[in-house]
Amino acid sequence: MTAALEFMNIALVIAFCAVAISQVLCMIRLVIGPDTGDRILALDTMVVNAIGIIVLLGIWQGTQIYFEVSMIIAMLGFVSTVAYARFKLRGDIIE
Amino acid sequence: MTLDAVLIYIAGIWLLIGAIFALVGSIGLLRFTDPMTRLHAPTKVGTVGIGALLLAGMIHAFVTGDGSIHELLIMSFLFVTAPISANFIAKVHIHRRTCETPPEPLKDKTWSTLDVPEERPKAVEAEA
């Protein structure tokens, strides 16, 4: 059991590092993105990565508290992506 | 080796799979050159990456404490909304002409089931 927990800890650290690096890569695309569509896409991916980081934090601390947080971030991320895209498409969010 | 140890190993492997998918998707988002190919990479982060991380979280919760399956709610929400937002972003690319415009469709007299050549004389006869 201790060997398994050791493996789980190493996997958690690796996963934290990988998701953090991918968040930074998305931020680079957000800054250099040649067009608005690329920036919307980078923001969408950053929201998904943020959910991943919060889930990892929940595993790390062994609590279920972060479930609501990631649920709300998922919903707001979808709504904001759709709102950005509609604003670029129609020049208006609610017609 | 007990069942708990095996389950924790499985959770760790799912964690690694999810992390690798998240990293690969973001590298693809940064490295690809065309807007439409760039759209292809991060969809893997939203489905396989987050799905594997949430699965690892569920297995870990079942082993270490009282189990929980409400991570399934986040998973199903993301799986439903990811294609919709990808479709919207593709529409933005198409309408802002930042990607290659697809070629015009071929002009043809027959289209799908309309104006099928064998049916044409019969219809004329019926009209007459």
TrEMBL record, chain A:
Positions of transmembrane segments: 6-28, 40-59, 65-85
Superkingdom classification of source: Bacteria
Keyword Membrane included in the entry's annotation: yes
UniProt membrane topology term: Multi-pass membrane protein
Xref: InterPro entries: MrpF/PhaF-like
Protein name: K+/H+ antiporter subunit F
Family recorded in the similarity comment: Belongs to the CPA3 antiporters (TC 2.A.63) subunit F family.
Pfam families in the cross-refs: MrpF_PhaF (PF04066)
Matches recorded under PANTHER family: NA(+)/H(+) ANTIPORTER SUBUNIT F1, NA(+)_H(+) ANTIPORTER SUBUNIT F
Keyword entries, A-Z: Antiport, Cell membrane, Ion transport, Membrane, Transmembrane, Transmembrane helix, Transport
Predominant cellular place of this UniProt entry's protein: membrane
Subcellular location: Cell membrane
Lineage, highest ranks first: Bacteria, Pseudomonadati, Pseudomonadota, Alphaproteobacteria, Rhodobacterales
TrEMBL record, chain B:
Keyword annotations from UniProtKB, A to Z: Membrane, Transmembrane, Transmembrane helix
Biased composition (Basic and acidic residues): 117-128
Keyword Translocase carried by entry: no
Coiled coil regions, renumbered to chain: none
Signal peptide interval: none
Ranges that cross the membrane: 6-33, 45-63, 69-90
Region annotation Disordered: where it falls in the sequence: 102-128
Keyword Transmembrane appears in the UniProt entry: yes
UniProt-recorded name of the protein: Na+/H+ antiporter subunit G
